[in-house]
Amino acid sequence: MELPHVQELYAELKENENFQVLAVEINDDRDGADTFIEENGLTFIFTEADRNFVETKFNTAYYPNSFLIGKDSRIKQHWVGFTEGEEEVVREAILEELQNDGR
């Protein structure tokens, strides 16, 4: 899910205590990432990680990746890449998980 769409979703749901967004920035271009974050008004949490760490821990070499993680700390959904319109599929999956309260 592209980050400006993530920002829209974050703005909508950030008041829900069971919802959080964490973006992992591959540390290839920190200055470029900081500029992108600022220019797009992204206000959710960003952390930085080494490409090899991300590819190993998340078993992927493709970007972007979006993970929906439940309150039980399990991955509920995983999306690779992004297609315009997919943000609504992600939104609905998140709303369903929030409604289920992790059960």
Structural description of this entry:
The protein has a single domain (3-100), classed as Glutaredoxin. It is globular, with a radius of gyration of 14 Å. It is α+β, with helices and mostly antiparallel strands and 103 residues long. It has helices spanning 3-13, 30-39, 51-57, 86-100, and strands spanning 22-26, 45-49, 65-69, 75-80. 42% of the residues lie in helices and 20% in strands. A two-stranded parallel ribbon has the order 1-2. A two-stranded antiparallel sheet has the order 3-4. The model has no long low-confidence stretch (mean pLDDT 87). The longest helix has 15 residues, at 86-100.
Topology:
Blueprint (H helix, E strand, L loop, with lengths): L2 H11 L8 E5 L3 H10 L5 E5 L1 H7 L7 E5 L5 E6 L5 H15 L3
Parallel strand pairs: 1-2
Antiparallel strand pairs: 3-4
State the helix count: 4
How much strand? 15-25%
Main sheet: which strands, in order across?
1-2
Radius of gyration: 14 Å
Number of strands: 4
From the 3D structure, determine the CATH topology: Glutaredoxin
Identify the notable features of this structure and list them briefly.
Glutaredoxin; two-stranded parallel ribbon; 103 residues; 42% helix; alpha+beta; two-stranded antiparallel sheet; 20% strand
Care to give the gist of this entry?
The chain is of the alpha+beta class and 103 residues long.
